Amino acid sequence: MKIGKKISFILKALLICAIAAGLSLSFNYLRPVASEQNGLAAQQVEIIQIDGAGFIEAFESGEAVIIDARSGSDFAMGHVPGAINVPSWAVHAELDGLIASIPKDKMIIVYCDGLSCGKSKIVGRKLVEKGFSKLAVYPDGLDGWLSLGKDLEAN
Amino acid sequence: MSMKSLPRVILGLIFIIACTGKILDPLAFAEIVRNYQVLPEVMILPIAYFLPWLEFTCGAMLVCGVLTETATIIISSMLVLFIAVLSANLYRGLDVACGCFSTDGSLKSGMVTTIVRDVVLLVLAAMSYKFKKN
Questions:
Q1: Is the Cβ–Cβ distance between B54 and A16 less than 8 Å?
Q2: pLDDT tens digits, one per residue of A129-146
Q3: What is the Cα–Cα distance from B96 to B110, expressed in whole angstroms?
Q4: Using an 8 Å Cβ cutoff, are A108 and A131 in contact?
Q5: What is the pTM of this model?
Q6: Mutate which of A19, A31, A44 to test chain B, going by most B C-beta atoms within 10 A?
Q7: Looking at chain B from residue 29 to 88, which residues have their Cβ under 8 Å from any Cβ of chain A?
Q8: How far apart are the C-alpha atoms of A9 and A122, rounded to whole Å?
Q9: ipTM above threshold 0.90
Q10: What is the DSSP string of A10-22?
Q11: Which of A10, A24, A85 best tests the B interface by mutation, with the highest count of B CBs <10 A?
Q12: How far apart are CA B40 and CA A57, in angstroms?
């Protein structure tokens, strides 16, 4: 690529980036931001994490609602007994329907596949937005549950 | 519209469709970007606000036939970046939402499918670039 062509490409690329940045700034400045503020508030809430012992204790005492954040098909193949399936992509009416029966003051523990799985945190943040206050994530997920020698339930 | 401009227009339309959900809900997209665990926290929100609009601008330019060569190169660079990040996370065993076409529904498709789809789009970009040069 000749030097003139390189400079021309860089200038054109900068122009495209500037147009994109301008559109982003004006669009996000002009539209209503109420939902964003809720989102930001939810992001600032630190969701606590529990270990295997804490998870088993909550499970055996029956004091917590356990939520499986994986897909419906994964959930059907096997999940922690008694868990409720709330897939991480559930939003709006679907999400409201899935969590309608859970009291807002109930302790909730969310899990997904295993270490580094992001779905439980996504569901956790959505539940914070919905007004649930006692929320924990079990980061070891289903892998951790199985490694503790626990059984799964399938349906 | 000639057949030669078809790959360019299709690619542009795909990018416009892909960015709408992210433009409408940048914070949900920020959540997905955060889950990729490749960017420092300070860069997540700016990227979540800027990237969908860059996709839109490049897509619109491809559809309209304006600055198509530069837009194709930028789109190809984005695709290469997406493939690299997805592959890295697949290797690390991270289970994250794609965030490719929407801020929530794309979780349903697997990462390998997403990588293959991005490679197909990259081929489309190469075709669009080649026909532009001829």
A1: yes
A2: 888 888 898 988 888 899
A3: 10
A4: no
A5: 0.61
A6: A19
A7: 31, 35, 37, 49-50, 52-54, 56-58, 61, 67, 69-71, 73-74
A8: 39
A9: no
A10: HHHHHHHHHHHHH
A11: A24
A12: 35
